[in-house]
Amino acid sequence: MKADITLYEAAVKLIERRWPDADWATAAAVYLDDGSIATGVTLDNVNSAASLCAETGPLCQAYTTNRIVVASICVNRARGRTTDLVLAPCGVCQERLALWGPEVEVGVADSAGGQGWTSRPLRELNPHYWATAFSHSSAWPSPAEHAG
């Protein structure tokens, strides 16, 4: 399953519901292996070190309920911009998504201006994943290997 317009719209609807008048907002949506969608928002805090990425909530929900994440998208809205931006997962979120393997699809901007977006497997974002050094098969570590 790819990051698609339905997943994008789920994140946009969450932004509109959570922050209808915000100057800046970010939300994420993930597909789980049963086809359901989990969503989350950034944790705003005056101390940015205490903030969390929007993907954190739905990823923790998936892990807690023993579901598999198959696709993820993160959407950012800013007042004055004509379109919402799809943000590729940051390095920390790539690590979190790695629990479910290199084929997890993620939304990424097509261009530097972020006007379009596409779905790509996590492996394309991180082709030289460091944790393969610890895998018994020289592939991405399995969930059991991630757990140590």
What tags apply to this protein structure?
single chain, 148 residues, alpha+beta, Cytidine Deaminase, domain 2, 6-stranded mixed beta sheet, 6 strands, 26% helix, globular
Question: Could you characterize the architecture of this molecule?
Answer:
The protein has helices spanning 5-18, 56-64, 91-97, 122-125, 143-146; strands spanning 24-32, 37-41, 69-78, 85-87, 105-109, 117-121. The chain has 148 residues and is α+β, with helices and mostly antiparallel strands. The chain has a single domain (5-146), classed as Cytidine Deaminase, domain 2 (3-Layer(aba) Sandwich), CATH 3.40.140.10. The protein starts with a helix and ends with a helix. 32% of the residues are buried. The mean pLDDT is 90.
